[in-house]
Amino acid sequence: MAASEDRVIVAGAGPVGLVATVSLLRQGIPVTLVERTPDLPRDLRASTFHPPTLDFLDRLGLAAPLRAQGLKCPLWQFRDRETGVVAEFDLGVLADETDHPYRLQCEQWKLTEAARAAVEDHPDGTFHTDFAVEDVGQDADRVTVTGVRPDGSRDTLHGRYLIGADGARSVVRKALNVEFPGLTIPEIFLSLSTPFAYHEAIPDLANISYISDPDEWLVLLRTPTLWRVLLPTDPSLSDDEILDPATVEARLQAVLPSDAPYEVAHKTAYRVHERVADRYVAGRIFLAGDAAHLNNPLGGMGMNGGIHDAVNLTEKLGRIWRGAADLSEMDRYERQRRKVAIETVQAQALKNREMLRESAPEKRAAFHDELRAITADPARHRAYVMRSSMLQSLHDLDRVA
Ligand SMILES: Cc1cc2nc3c(=O)[nH]c(=O)nc-3n(C[C@H](O)[C@H](O)[C@H](O)COP(=O)(O)OP(=O)(O)OC[C@H]3O[C@@H](n4cnc5c(N)ncnc54)[C@H](O)[C@@H]3O)c2cc1C
C-alpha cells in the first residue's frame, strides 16, 4: 500500500467526523477528512454539551475553547407552562463522576471550528472541502472513496478504513445498502433565537427548561449570547407560513407577553426523525453520528451520542491499527453503540417528548408527581441525572459483550 493510502478516510466534517479525525490524529494515525461543503456551517444546531462529552473532548484538547466560550449550567428544570417549576435537577451531584458536573451551553459550530483548526495544524491531517462522497467500495486491504467536486470533476481516494460521519442523509450508509428504519415525528420543530433576556423576565427560570403543556409544550435554552425557544408546529403549514415574521412574533408573545416586539436572530423549522441504522459496520467501513442514528432534540443527546460513537470507534480502530486487536473488535463497537442509540438516546428522547406533550390531566399529574418524587430522593435524583447526562450509558458499555 502506498504511504498516501496508509490512512483512515473520514467522510463528513460535522462534530462527529471532526472529533473522530482529531482522536485518530492524537493516536498517530494519518487521516484524510473530506467534506461536501466549501466551508463549515455556522447555523444554530445542537447547543448542549453533556458532562461525559466534555470529559472526552478534554482528553483531545478540545474542551478548553468551549469552556471559555460557553455557559456552565449545573441546573435544569422541568416546568409546567401554567404553574412554573415542577422539578429542578442538579448535575452538581455528579462531581465525583466527572470533571464537568454541568451541561455546557455552547453552539456546535464552536466545537467544529476548534476541531478543524486541530486537524489543519496536524502534520498527518489532510482536509478536503468541496468533496462530496458519491460512492464507496472496499476489498480485503483497503477502501475506495469517490467524490465529486463542484465543477463536476471526480477524485478517488484510497485508505485502510473509512468512517461515514456524513450526517442524516449519509451517502456512505446508502452505498452500503444499510437500512435506516424508524419514524418521522409528526410535528415540525420550530427553533427561534432571540436576545430577549428570559432569565430577567422569569427570575426562577433555569438556563435549560423543558416546559410541559397540554396544548403547546416548549423548551427554553440559553446560549452564551441568545435564548432559544423550541416550539412544536403544525406540519400542514409551509415553511413560509411557519417562519412568517408576524406569526413568529405572535408565537413569542404567547410564550411571554412583551411590550416591545421580539428581535429574532435566527429561525429554523425542521423535521425530526427517530431512526437507527441496522448495521454500523460493514468490513472496513463504519458509520457514526447522525449517519447511524437520529432522534428528537429533547434532552440534547443527538450530537453528544454521536461524539461518544466517535470516541468508542476510534479507540477500537487505534488498537486495530497498532495490531493489538483484529477487525472483529468493530463488531463490539456496533453492539455497544447501537444499544445506546436504541435503549438510552431514543428511549429517553421519546419519553421526554411524551412527558412534555401529555394532555390527559391525570397522566400529566402522574408525570409531575414522579419527577417531584425523584428530586426529593437523593439516590433517585443521582440515578436520574446519571442517565440524562449520558454517563450511565457509558458505564453500562462494559456489560455489552
Ligand atoms: C436545524 C437543526 C437543528 C438541530 N438542533 C439540535 C438541537 O437543538 N439539539 C441537538 O442535540 N441536536 C440538534 N440537531 C442535531 C445535531 O446538529 C446533529 O445530531 C449533529 O450535528 C450530528 O453530527 P454529525 O457530525 O453526525 O452530522 P452533521 O453535523 O450533519 O455533519 C455531517 C457532515 O457531513 C457532510 N456531508 C454530507 N454528505 C456528504 C458527502 N456526501 N460527502 C462529504 N461530506 C458530506 C455535511 O456537509 C456535514 O458537514 C439539529 C440539527 C439540525 C439540522
Polypeptide structure, described:
The structure is a single chain. By secondary structure, this protein is of the alpha+beta class. The chain folds into 2 domains: 3-71 and 106-182 and 274-399, FAD/NAD(P)-binding domain; 184-272, D-Amino Acid Oxidase, Chain A, domain 2 (2-Layer Sandwich), CATH 3.30.9. It is 37% helix and 25% strand. It contains 13 helices and 22 strands. The strands form 5 sheets. The protein has a 7-stranded mixed sheet. A hairpin with a 4-residue loop joins β9 (132-138) and β10. The longest helix has 29 residues, at 329-357. The radius of gyration is 22 Å and the shape is globular. The model has no long low-confidence stretch (mean pLDDT 96). It binds flavin-adenine dinucleotide (FAD). Residues 11-17, 34-37, 45-47, 108, 132-133, 165-167, 171, 268, 270, 289-290, 297, 300, 302-303, 306 line the site of flavin-adenine dinucleotide.
Indicate the CATH architecture of the largest domain: 3-Layer(bba) Sandwich
Unreliable segments of 5+ consecutive residues: none
Read across the widest sheet, the strand sequence of neighbours is 6-5-15-16-17-14-18
* Small molecules in complex: flavin-adenine dinucleotide
Could you tell me the CATH topology label of the largest domain. Answer: FAD/NAD(P)-binding domain
Sketch the major β-sheet. Answer: 7 strands, mixed
Strand content: 15-25%
What topology does this entry show?
Elements lengths: L7 E4 L3 H12 L4 E4 L13 E2 L1 H9 L3 H7 L1 E3 L1 E6 L3 E7 L12 E3 L2 H14 L3 E4 L3 E7 L4 E6 L5 E6 L1 E4 L6 H5 L6 E3 L3 E7 L3 H4 L6 E5 L5 E5 L4 E7 L5 H5 L1 H11 L10 E5 L2 E4 L4 E2 L2 E3 L5 E2 L7 H20 L7 H29 L3 H16 L1 H11 L2 H5 L6
Parallel strand pairs: 1-2, 1-12, 2-8, 5-15, 12-21
Antiparallel strand pairs: 3-7, 4-7, 5-6, 9-10, 10-11, 13-19, 14-17, 14-18, 15-16, 16-17, 19-22, 20-21
Helix pairs in contact: 1-4, 1-9, 9-10, 11-12
